[in-house]
Specification:
alpha/beta; Metallo-beta-lactamase, Chain A; seven-stranded mixed beta sheet
Length: about 250
C-alpha cells in the first residue's frame, strides 16, 4: 500500500474505535490503497460477506486490484479520482461479465454519460479495409466503423447529500449494507462523502425476551409487534478530497 500527499481520507470503524469485543474481526478489510495528490487516488475494501467496494478510481498502480469491485463510490470528478473509471468498467465487464455500478454526485452524471459515449466510440473503432487496400501504396483507409457491441456497459447512479441508499440485500444473518451521502467542500467542485453502514437484523422487544417459542408464536398470530428495528452501525467513512470547512458543515447539510 502507498499513501502519498493526497488529501482523501478513509476511516474504517474498527481501526479507530475501541470495540466491546476485541476478538470480533473488522467488518471491512482494507485490501489496497494508493493516493498521490494530483496524480491518483483509489481505495479498495472488502466486507466480511465478500462485497468489494472501490472508493474513487483514479489511474493508480492498483487499478488492477480495484477491477474486482462491482461497486464504486466516486467522491468527485477530478481526474486524479475518476480517470480510471472507463478502464475499470471495461475490465470488470470483460473479466466478471457483470455491469459495475458507479455512485457519483448528480451534477456529474450527464458529463460522465457524454464521456461514456466518446470512450465507447474510441474503444470500438476499427478500420474497414481489405487486403488489397492494405497492400497498395495508393490506398487510403476507409471510414472507421464501430463494433456492434462495445464492451463497456456501466450503471451510473447520481446521489446527493442526505441520500440513504441500500447497497446490498439482506444476508443469511439478516444484515444488509447501506450508504449515507454527506456534503464536503472541495474548491467548489461537486463533491460528496460516503458513510457505509451495516443494518443489523430485527431483535425481540425487551418485554418478550425469554418467552417460550409457543407464546411468541401466539403473539405473532394475534398481530402483536414483537420485534424492533435493528441498529445501524457505521463501519466506514470516506470523504474524498475536502477541507476543514467541509468537515465542519452543519449536520443538516450532511
Amino acid at each position: 500500500m502507498k499513501a502519498g500527499s493526497g488529501s482523501a481520507a478513509c476511516i474504517v470503524n474498527s481501526a479507530i474505535c475501541t470495540k466491546a469485543n476485541q476478538d470480533e474481526p473488522s467488518y471491512f478489510k482494507l485490501l489496497n490503497c494508493w493516493s498521490l495528490g494530483g496524480v491518483g487516488t483509489s481505495v479498495l475494501v472488502e466486507s466480511r460477506m465478500g462485497t468489494r467496494i472501490a472508493l474513487d478510481v483514479g489511474c493508480t498502480p492498483i487499478i488492477h486490484d480495484t477491477v474486482s469491485a462491482s461497486i464504486v463510490l466516486m467522491s468527485h470528478g477530478h481526474l486524479d479520482h475518476s480517470g480510471g473509471l472507463f478502464s475499470h468498467a471495461r475490465a470488470h465487464f470483460l473479466l466478471f461479465h457483470k455491469i459495475p455500478t458507479y455512485y457519483m454526485p448528480i451534477p456529474l452524471v450527464d458529463k460522465v454519460r457524454n464521456a461514456e459515449k466518446a470512450m465507447c466510440d474510441l474503444d470500438s473503432a476499427k478500420i474497414a479495409s481489405n487486403n488489397e487496400e492494405l497492400c497498395s501504396t495508393d490506398s487510403k483507409f476507409s471510414t472507421p466503423t464501430l463494433r456492434t457491441s462495445p464492451g463497456m456497459p456501466i450503471n451510473i447512479v447520481g446521489v446527493k447529500p442526505g441520500d440513504e441508499i441500500p447497497l446490498s440485500s439482506s444476508t443469511a444473518q439478516g444484515e444488509s449494507l447501506l450508504i449515507r451521502v454527506f456534503q464536503v467542500q472541495h474548491e467548489g467542485h461537486p463533491s460528496v462523502g460516503y458513510v457505509i453502514c451495516r443494518k443489523l437484523p430485527q431483535r425481540l422487544l425487551p418485554e418478550f425476551v425469554g418467552l417460550p417459542s409457543n407464546e411468541i408464536r401466539d403473539l405473532v398470530r394475534k398481530g402483536i409487534k414483537i420485534k424492533a428495528e435493528g441498529d445501524t452501525v457505521v463501519e466506514l467513512s470516506y470523504t474524498g478530497d475536502t477541507c476543514s470547512e467541509g468537515l465542519c458543515m452543519p449536520s443538516s447539510k450532511k
